[in-house]
Amino acid sequence: MLSYRHSFHAGNHADVLKHTVQSLIITALKEKEKPFLYLDTHSGAGRYQLHGEHAERTGEYREGIGRIWQRDDIPAEMEAYLQVVRSYNSGGQLRYYPGSPLIARQLLREQDTLNLTELHPTDFSLLRQEFARDDRARVVREDGYLQLKSRLPPAARRGVILIDPPYELKTDYQAVVDGIQEGYRRFATGVYALWYPVVLRQQIKRLLKALEETGIRRILQIELAVLPDSDRHGMTASGMIVINPPWKLEAQMKSLLPWLHQVLVPEGTGHTRVEWVVPE
């Protein structure tokens, strides 16, 4: 299925969490001079117009990045991410939201490389245009999970793999587990960052159990909920599952999430979570 367009949801609370974690991982990898690979299995269009038809139809960005980007009390953990957002929005107006490929592009160094994959024909065309002049980037229209076979391990034996599917199908939940197993067999020292939505809590419980059963160690769960769990239709929370997280990430997110929850959910509903699914 190719109906999902992230342009309807760009900049929402889930993006804020996902891209903050992404930025912290990239920043940690840059502490060593050796180059690394950024691999994005579901890249999207790259850049999103927040005053376009799609984003305005849902208005989700107003309760996400719209509540944060101009505050003067930003925690240090969010600075790298927000600097990228601000670089695309001058004059005090929030017009564009940079997706994960653009965040990676701005944070990576000359010696690092990007491997970006998108299947949707319109989004792929937009993504390819964004990176037409970036020699560090390889942009392909292909099933992102196949990249976990063909592009791993990277030559430098360092990298972060962002897996961010639309979860249009129930089979997507098993597909991410299979994809991680495939990548991990080839590149066990890589950092794997998996985004997930909480629509039905039982789906997430099954996902976590399936990841436990892979035998992979060092699996950290980071979650931000804006509403209590519900059996009604709609996303109440989202999270990141990080395999081989940088050593500071757990403490960074434990410090940041209370502030982020307070700003994004002033009414106080929902919860935050940072805990090990499988420890060392």
From TrEMBL:
<feature type="active site" description="Proton acceptor">
    <location>
        <position position="164"/>
    </location>
</feature>
<feature type="binding site">
    <location>
        <begin position="143"/>
        <end position="144"/>
    </location>
    <ligand>
        <name>S-adenosyl-L-methionine</name>
    </ligand>
</feature>
<protein>
    <recommendedName>
        <fullName>Ribosomal RNA large subunit methyltransferase J</fullName>
        <ecNumber>2.1.1.266</ecNumber>
    </recommendedName>
</protein>
<dbReference type="InterPro" id="IPR029063">
    <property type="entry name" value="SAM-dependent_MTases_sf"/>
</dbReference>
<feature type="binding site">
    <location>
        <position position="164"/>
    </location>
    <ligand>
        <name>S-adenosyl-L-methionine</name>
    </ligand>
</feature>
<dbReference type="GO" id="GO:0005829">
    <property type="term" value="C:cytosol"/>
</dbReference>
<feature type="binding site">
    <location>
        <position position="100"/>
    </location>
    <ligand>
        <name>S-adenosyl-L-methionine</name>
    </ligand>
</feature>
<feature type="binding site">
    <location>
        <position position="42"/>
    </location>
    <ligand>
        <name>S-adenosyl-L-methionine</name>
    </ligand>
</feature>
<comment type="subunit">
    <text>Monomer.</text>
</comment>
<comment type="similarity">
    <text>Belongs to the RlmJ family.</text>
</comment>
<comment type="function">
    <text>Specifically methylates the adenine in position 2030 of 23S rRNA.</text>
</comment>
<keyword id="KW-0694">RNA-binding</keyword>
<dbReference type="GO" id="GO:0003723">
    <property type="term" value="F:RNA binding"/>
</dbReference>
<keyword id="KW-0698">rRNA processing</keyword>
<feature type="binding site">
    <location>
        <position position="118"/>
    </location>
    <ligand>
        <name>S-adenosyl-L-methionine</name>
    </ligand>
</feature>
<dbReference type="GO" id="GO:0036307">
    <property type="term" value="F:23S rRNA (adenine(2030)-N(6))-methyltransferase activity"/>
</dbReference>
<dbReference type="InterPro" id="IPR002052">
    <property type="entry name" value="DNA_methylase_N6_adenine_CS"/>
</dbReference>
<dbReference type="Pfam" id="PF04378">
    <property type="entry name" value="RsmJ"/>
</dbReference>
<dbReference type="GO" id="GO:0070475">
    <property type="term" value="P:rRNA base methylation"/>
</dbReference>
<dbReference type="InterPro" id="IPR007473">
    <property type="entry name" value="RlmJ"/>
</dbReference>
<keyword id="KW-0808">Transferase</keyword>
<feature type="site" description="Interaction with substrate rRNA">
    <location>
        <position position="4"/>
    </location>
</feature>
<keyword id="KW-0949">S-adenosyl-L-methionine</keyword>
<feature type="binding site">
    <location>
        <position position="19"/>
    </location>
    <ligand>
        <name>S-adenosyl-L-methionine</name>
    </ligand>
</feature>
<keyword id="KW-0489">Methyltransferase</keyword>
